[in-house]
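Format notes (please read before filing issues)

Several people have asked whether sequences and structure tokens are stored in separate files. They are not. Every record keeps both together, in the order shown below: the sequence lines, then the token lines. Line labels are part of the format and must not be stripped during preprocessing.
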Amino acid sequence: MNLSRLKLRRFIKESNLIEGITEPPTARTVSVYDSFLWLEEVHLIDVQSLVSVIQPGAFLRQSPGMDVRVGGYFPPPGGPEIVKRATDLMAEVNVPGYASTPHKVHLMYETLHPFTDGNGRSGRALWLWMMIHHQNVQPETFLHQFYYQTLQAFHG
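Then the structure lines:
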């Protein structure tokens, strides 16, 4: 299952607006997202490829000292443990029906914050991949669907 180009453009636009990016998505960006969503399995190298296009100059925080701060939150320090945890998370993403929902994976990914930048957009792309491949759902928007998943996870 894939998203129509129009739905994908809407998703990317909304994802970018969350980050304060108002420019329309380029054809290359849409193409990279589309290729990502067609993957049968997602691996860390695939997310790295996506991030290299949507946030040029952002890197996997694989070396000690590659630390970041997100507002008042300090994700785990950069280094080999980030790579291990991100790789483990991608292995979990690829198992349909596993304990983690797209919502939980998104939160784990954002908490890990594996890249120096571009984590929000790549995390939302990962959420969308899981929605399409494991839930068989093509969300119209990220925020609307995520909002209801958050409420369900909290109450359920």
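For reference, the curators noted about this record: The chain has one domain: 5-155. Helices lie at 5-18, 27-38, 44-54, 80-93, 102-112, 119-134, 142-155.
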